[in-house]
Design a protein that fits this description.
- The protein has 4 helices and 6 strands.
- The protein is an alpha+beta fold.
- Strand 3 and strand 4 form a beta hairpin.
- It starts with 6 loop residues before the first helix and ends with a helix.
């Protein structure tokens, strides 16, 4: 399953306003068109919906991602290892050890050509981190976590702990 596999993502996008959904899907198409050989990893977390692309199934190999804030409704286009790539125009935000991003407020203002250059470097950087080439997959969409499932597991574990 690859780019066409949208069932989970569309379900996770439902709580977001229409314009946020539209921007997220537009950005998704942008990345898939540029890196069809990569894998999409989807994380439906309690505070954000995030989906990123990796040459493997591991988050540590993610080279770019889209994150939607559950309460802020901010749309980030980010780079998991953004601190390790060149950003000569200094458009990337973030001060942390790894992650760098831009806020995407309007599609027409998204710097496509510049971002493509950053993605190219980020992809090469990501591939360099893959030590076991057996992990490389091609063109899959993989749902890695679902917050409702996590909450249900936590609730079940809490009940079990109380019984002991």
């Amino acid at each position: 399953m690859g780019k066409e596999h949208t069932k989970d993502l569309l379900k996770f996008l439902k709580p977001f306003p229409g314009p946020i959904q539209e921007t997220a899907l537009w950005l998704r198409e942008f990345v898939w068109a540029t890196y069809p050989q990569a894998n999409e990893l989807i994380y439906d977390n309690y505070n954000a919906l995030a989906f990123g692309w990796s040459p493997t199934h591991k988050v540590g190999h993610t080279f770019c991602s889209i994150a939607l804030g559950r309460t802020s409704h901010n749309v980030h286009f980010g780079f998991y290892w953004g601190s390790e790539i060149a950003d000569p125009d200094n458009i990337l935000m973030g001060e942390g050890h790894q992650y760098r991003y831009i806020l995407v407020e309007q599609k027409k203002e998204f710097p496509k050509a510049y971002i493509k250059k950053l993605i190219k470097e980020a992809y090469a950087n990501s591939l360099a981190k893959v030590k076991d080439t057996e992990q490389i997959r091609k063109g899959e969409t993989i749902t890695k976590s679902v917050s409702a499932v996590k909450r249900a597991r936590a609730k079940k574990a809490k009940k079990a702990a109380k019984k002991k």
